[in-house]
Amino acid sequence: MKQVEQNYRSGVLRLIEAPVPRSGRGRNLVATRVSLISAGTEKQIIDLARSSLAGKAMARPDLVRKTLQKVRNEGLLPTVQKVFAKLDTPIPLGYSLAGTVVEAGAEAGGYAVGDRIACAGAAVANHAEYNAVPKNLSVRIPVGVCDEAASFVTLGAIALQGVRVANPTLGERVVVMGLGLIGQLTVQLLKANGCRVLGFDPNPGRAKLALEMGADVAVSDALDDAVRGFTDGYGADAVIVTASSKSSTPPNQAAEISRMKGRVVMVGLTGMEIDREPFYKRELDLRLSMSYGPGRHDPAYELEGHDYPLAYVRWTEQRNMQAFLELVAEGRVTPLKLVTHRFPIAEAEAAYKLMDTDEPFLAILLTYPETPAPIARSIPVNASSAATGRGTAFIGFGNYAKSVLVPALKKASKERLTTVVTSTGLSAHDAAQREGFANAATDSQAVMDDADTDCVFIATRHDSHASLAAAALRAGKHVFVEKPLALDHEQLADVVAAAEGAPGVLTVGFNRRFAPMMIAAKAAIASRAGPIAMHYRVNAGHVPGDSWLHGAQGGGRIVGEACHFVDALTFLAGGPPVSVSAFRPEGIDDTVSAVLRFADGSTGTILYSSLGDSSLPKEYLEIFASGTVVRLDDFRKLHITTGGKTTTQSASAQDKGQAGLVKAFYAAARDGAPAPIPLDELIAVSEATLDIAGV
């Protein structure tokens, strides 16, 4: 399928061929009929992508601070690799379209194949021939509304939410500042609400268009005088700012033209350095509108399909989308008047080039063929070498796979890369092209059925690790699955059953035991005369509550990450734990103190905490053994004290063992060496971690 992508690092925009995404539970596969280029929002993204690294840094100082902290903790080279891997990830453009359901997903809103629906959402309603759309980001298109008009659904919902936040009443005088697409729609929505409307835009052509859209007055200069005349000198009851500007002039100008106790609603993206005096003297109400409405930026609503009860949240983003289209059906909002250009999807690059010219434009539509392209979920990208039955595939290709696993793979073995599978065709195509995979796919079955793939890396989100690992093992593959192996005992049992009867090697990404400093730490206590005592302190840092790590996909941070430290202690003790106890602070799920006992009498404690200051190093390990004390400080320094003397090893950058583990995996898969981690230890570590998490 054809899809528009933007490279955030280079700024290059292009139309590519990508595999079609899967529908699946909660999502419908939609064949796009028309998609709308939002000139304001998309132009901002394009301009930022084209800017220098310094320009990108100035735009996101919060990310710069995080990056500098990462350099201090992990070293310069690993941080740079991760940052550039992130910057190189292509961005899908588009967030508003109309199309037809071609595959109805389970629990995806009750749509049927052939239903016409309008869809919204960045990275969801893309400029692509097919999109997999969650149910809460789609609505049925009313009878009588054409696809072109319905493609305005996202911008209409944004405009409608701005009007709702302003809470206008019949007869109020409202000013709309900024008469781009959202501003023009806002004018019509206010008129439909019984308001008198004054529109303002420095562009005289847009002011003229606002009059055609129903504004009572529209001006391109002398705004203060126009508002005085329009409001009989009182000032506007409400001002809705739909302009986009780095300057803080729009909100401050809005305050100057407001009446006493008026409302200023910010819809557009502007500077927010507010002059206190006019807001204070008029006791103004400053309100920010949250894009399409309640539900926006809530993954549980947008991606997982959990609706808000109508009795408590009358107007969600989906209900705003529906209300907008109903107004279009009634002829009270006429978005087709805003269309200035139409391009077929095959000429999408020309559509974006138009925005760099002096030619006037407003709404630009991309149209798609009457007959959709055939659905292909695996496509060739690079001509591969002759089939040998010895190739490696990746299922899942996020930042960790790109910046850590693939470099480790290429260092360990000259592998023929067969297929890369991701949830979106865009990321699969980019990964294949960048890393040299022969094929890009969105369906993991393409890997399971491929006789030329014998090694599979699974680097998806945690909830799919167990099922994919079990399927790959049953397909006869050697499997490297990122941690955790499973999110519950039932999943674990299925993987174990598959592994015990499979010819392939199973490896889990417990890399700490392969770190050079961890190996040196174990060597330092090799001559111990009895049990050892260990303490592993992990300053894990805070992860926001809405992160996927806390939800069903992640299974929680204890299962997702504490398994690393259970495995490290297992490695040092020389065998799996025989008992586990765990305690956590009341009401805090991602902090735990765990005590492990091993068969030889050794003990280990793990303090995994989200409560600390992330500016401090993350990991600190102490080992006490037969008069020897070993201290491992965040894989940057190793101190060994024995006989009153301390020796210290230092490293300029962390090496947590990823490369060593990947090398050991290929030695087992290709050369018949023992499995990197014995299966009984993989099982025991996973079971102990689930027990610590209370699963």
Could you characterize what this model shows?
The chain has 695 residues and is α/β, with parallel strands linked by helices. The chain is built from 23 helices and 31 strands. The chain has an 8-stranded mixed beta sheet, covered by helices on one side. Strands 3, 5, 6, 7, 8, 15 and 16 form a 7-stranded mixed beta sheet that branches. Strands 17-20-19-18-21-22-23 form a 7-stranded mixed beta sheet, with helices on both faces. β12 (236-241), α10 (249-256) and β13 (258-266) form a beta-alpha-beta unit. α6 packs across α13. The longest helix has 17 residues, at 557-573. The radius of gyration is 29 Å and the shape is globular. The two termini are 42 Å apart. The relative contact order is 0.09. The mean pLDDT is 92.
Features:
695 residues; eight-stranded mixed sheet; single chain; 23 helices
Provide a brief overview of the structure.
The protein has 695 residues and is α/β, with parallel strands linked by helices.
- Helix and strand content put the structural class at alpha/beta
Shape: globular
Low-confidence region ranges: none
- Tally of DSSP β-strands: 31
List the helices and strands and how they pair.
Blueprint: E1 2-7, E2 13-17, E3 27-37, H1 39-50, H2 53-59, H3 61-74, H4 76-87, E4 90-92, E5 96-103, E6 116-120, E7 130-134, E8 138-140, H5 147-150, H6 153-166, E9 173-177, H7 181-192, E10 196-200, H8 204-212, E11 217-219, H9 223-230, E12 236-241, H10 249-256, E13 258-266, H11 276-282, E14 285-288, H12 299-302, H13 317-329, E15 339-344, H14 348-354, E16 363-367, E17 378-380, E18 392-395, H15 399-412, E19 417-421, H16 425-435, E20 439-441, H17 445-448, E21 455-458, H18 465-474, E22 478-481, H19 489-500, E23 506-508, H20 516-524, E24 533-539, H21 557-573, E25 577-583, E26 592-598, E27 603-609, E28 619-625, E29 628-633, E30 637-642, E31 645-650, H22 658-671, H23 679-693
Helix pairs in contact: 3-4, 4-15, 6-7, 6-13, 15-22, 18-19, 19-23, 21-23
